[in-house]
């Protein structure tokens, strides 16, 4: 790392030394030498001082680009531990990896995204990672009220476990302040067409470079414009897939340059008629550039209710019956073991979001 | 696809456009995705000018990121919950129709979808004093039925007329007219319709499947793209103008014989809340019962309410079901005799 930086700008060392003030010429190494030499006429000295001022300015500019380089390559937090119960052993998404969450309607994909989102924006005290997140919403499916209720529940849980038996009153103001802080780590963008998605991703590049704590990009969903693109593209498949391909290539470049992680949902478009284990409905249908980017695939489905639960509750009365969802993860990531791994987990949706069983 | 035209932004004149077209850059997306340095060399234009044009075009056409905190504040101040008038239905919907979302009612013929829509429209216009836009694609709406429902709410004819005036009815029978109407509403029709009292708080489309279902099926995908277009403009309208969208849908049978809402898998992601209406099996002696059962098949909120009383249905575990009477809106079962008395007194 340091060698690369040195090659680009050998003055990066000056960045680590406090950059000398214009008002304190004594600290500048150049003038110190001059003064030590003590020779030359006034005009000579002035000329040399002016030259060195220009050099210093250039140094300051180049050293800023050194910081930017560091911000680009170093500061993004690795999200391998974002949810270890979803991924196979030590197979969480690394820098620059893409996870696709695929499933038919009502199988908890958006709930999973809320779960990951809250895990990222919550403070460390409540079990979060304190990173910034960008949520690209293509079909207006972000329910802020639900997200806020999940964040609230988790913040309260974190607060009670921390305080234990302490009787200090938690004022409503501090609750709100904590919630506001969490929400300020989230950026939401609404896109209404695939061309707007492409342009927005170009625009997001500046956001990515300026915020070094931004480590996660959530897209819900990638397949929202599938049918409109097919209608616009007419008969040629390449024209139909053109915009999504361009977006995928741009996403690939952003992944390589900025080392973020992407989670994207994809709605199923074919109904599974032949039971839960039909492979044809789970086949990816988005364009090839996108499929090449995807390193982990989470297949969501609904699980049948537990038979013993059904037997115990009969008749009227309060029943707590929650639907159970199943997630099957297949990873083809090359970074971890080089081989494909897979894992199946189940979860329920509660007030506090997703709860793994 | 936004095509580059001269005058779109300062600096984009005809000569530059011609040289860009010669370099095969015709749309804004092409310009933004291409490498500015290469393009500047090819078109012999200054890199700085091209970069400035690119920046202005991006600023004009992208969606801007909003902080989550600002979005939440906005939502808190603009979201409203509209009651449908029937307390059992409201319980199912978690206290009513939410603005900014699409709610779907599906059911077979005669299951009461249109009656529920009439009742909701009457309740919103009379009790909540807000305007409603009712898009009728089946021809099943008659003003006399609305008046009948209003008569059971109030006897004052002025109030009845006022409430009727707040319900704007649009009749159309194909999807292009529907798109036209919805785009017109987004473009300024909603503000115009808010003249004369409350702002428009609900848009009811009865039924959306009647105009879309004939286009689906077969090899062409135009029907699907038109459906996603209708979904997109409904969602945009609901979100941007904070109205509650209520749509109705037909039903089909799935492979295993269960009744499910129509319009396929791609439509199933569109509504936030889905309710299935069915007739209640009653004794054969009681014909033409007005009891219906509503099952909540998709909701993002009822996770909290899973402790409500469930009617056990072994084939559909975990679905909340409520029974309600269609005559609620025209004076409930107890008040039906009251209505008859009113008629006798009136005539």
TrEMBL record, chain A:
SUPFAM superfamilies tied to this protein: P-loop containing nucleoside triphosphate hydrolases (SSF52540)
Occurrences of domain RecA family profile (ranges): 71-268
A Gene Ontology biological process term: DNA strand invasion
Signal peptide limits: none
Natural source organism: Kryptolebias marmoratus (Mangrove killifish)
Annotated GO CC locations: centrosome; Rad51B-Rad51C-Rad51D-XRCC2 complex; replication fork
GO molecular function: ATP binding; ATP-dependent DNA damage sensor activity; four-way junction DNA binding
Name recorded for this polypeptide: RecA family profile 1 domain-containing protein
One Pfam family from the record: Rad51
Region described as Disordered: 24-64
Gene3D superfamilies: P-loop containing nucleotide triphosphate hydrolases (3.40.50.300)
InterPro entries: AAA+_ATPase (IPR003593), P-loop_NTPase (IPR027417), Rad51_C (IPR013632), RecA_ATP-bd (IPR020588), XRCC2 (IPR030547)
């Amino acid at each position: 790392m340091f060698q690369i930086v040195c090659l680009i700008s050998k003055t990066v060392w000056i960045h680590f030394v406090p950059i000398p003030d214009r008002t304190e010429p004594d600290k500048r190494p150049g003038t110190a030498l001059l003064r030590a030499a003590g020779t030359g006429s006034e005009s000579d000295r002035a000329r040399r001082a002016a030259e060195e001022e220009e050099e210093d300015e250039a140094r300051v500019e180049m050293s800023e680009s050194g910081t930017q380089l560091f911000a680009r390559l170093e500061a993004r937090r690795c999200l391998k531990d974002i949810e270890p119960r979803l991924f196979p052993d030590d197979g969480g998404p690394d820098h620059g990896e893409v996870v696709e969450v695929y499933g038919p309607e009502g199988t908890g994909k958006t709930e999973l995204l809320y779960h990951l989102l809250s895990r990222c924006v919550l403070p460390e005290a409540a079990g979060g990672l304190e990173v910034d997140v960008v949520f690209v919403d293509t079909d207006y499916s972000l329910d802020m009220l639900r997200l806020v209720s999940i964040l609230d529940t988790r913040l309260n849980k974190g607060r009670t476990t921390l305080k234990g038996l302490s009787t200090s009153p938690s004022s409503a103001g501090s609750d709100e302040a904590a919630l506001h802080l969490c929400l300020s780590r989230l950026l939401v963008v609404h896109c209404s067409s695939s061309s707007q998605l492409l342009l927005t991703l170009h625009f997001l590049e500046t956001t990515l470079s300026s915020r070094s704590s931004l480590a996660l990009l959530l897209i819900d969903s990638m397949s929202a414009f599938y049918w409109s693109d097919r209608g616009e593209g007419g008969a040629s498949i390449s024209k139909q897939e053109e915009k999504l391909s361009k977006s995928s290539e741009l996403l690939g470049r952003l992944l390589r340059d900025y080392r973020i992680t992407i989670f994207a949902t994809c709605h199923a478009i074919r109904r599974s008629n032949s039971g839960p284990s039909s492979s044809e409905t789970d086949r990816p249908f988005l364009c090839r550039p996108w499929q090449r980017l995807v390193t982990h695939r989470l297949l969501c489905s609904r699980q049948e209710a537990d038979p013993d639960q059904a037997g115990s509750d009969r008749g009227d009365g309060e029943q707590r019956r929650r639907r159970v969802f199943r997630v099957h993860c297949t990873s083809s990531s090359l970074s971890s073991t080089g081989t494909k791994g897979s894992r199946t987990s189940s979860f329920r949706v509660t007030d506090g979001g997703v709860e793994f069983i | 696809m936004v095509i580059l035209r001269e005058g779109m932004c300062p600096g984009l004149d005809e000569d530059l456009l011609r040289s860009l077209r010669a370099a095969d850059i015709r749309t804004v997306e092409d310009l933004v995705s291409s490498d500015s340095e290469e393009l500047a060399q090819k078109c012999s234009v200054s890199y700085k000018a091209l970069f400035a044009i690119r920046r202005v075009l991006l600023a004009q056409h992208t969606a801007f990121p909003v902080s989550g905190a600002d979005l939440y504040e906005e939502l808190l101040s603009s979201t409203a919950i509209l009651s449908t008038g029937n307390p059992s239905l409201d319980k199912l919907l978690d206290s009513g129709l939410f603005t900014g979302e699409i709610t779907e009612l599906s059911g077979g013929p005669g299951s009461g979808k249109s009656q529920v829509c009439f009742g909701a429209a009457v309740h919103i216009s009379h009790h909540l004093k807000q305007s409603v836009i009712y898009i009728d694609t089946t021809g099943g709406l008659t003003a006399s039925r609305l008046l009948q429902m209003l008569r059971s709410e109030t006897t004052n004819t002025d109030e009845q007329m006022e409430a009727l005036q707040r319900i704007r009815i649009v009749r159309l029978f194909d999807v292009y007219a529907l798109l036209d109407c919805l785009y017109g509403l987004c473009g300024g029709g909603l503000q115009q319709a808010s003249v004369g009292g409350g702002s428009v708080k609900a848009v009811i489309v009865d039924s959306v499947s009647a105009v879309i279902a004939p286009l689906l099926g077969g090899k062409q995908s135009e029907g699907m793209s038109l459906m996603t277009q209708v979904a997109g403009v409904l969602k945009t309208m609901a979100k941007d103008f904070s109205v509650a969208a209520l749509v109705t849908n037909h039903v089909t049978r799935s492979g295993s014989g269960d009744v499910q809402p129509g319009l396929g898998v791609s439509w199933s992601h569109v509504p936030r809340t889905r309710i299935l209406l069915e007739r209640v099996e009653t004794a054969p002696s009681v014909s033409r019962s007005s009891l219906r059962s509503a099952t909540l098949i998709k909701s993002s909120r009822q996770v909290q309410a899973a402790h409500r009383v469930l009617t056990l249905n072994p084939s559909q575990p975990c679905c909340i079901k409520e029974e309600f009477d269609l005559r609620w809106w025209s004076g409930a079962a107890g008040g039906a005799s009251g209505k008859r008395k009113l008629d006798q007194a009136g005539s």
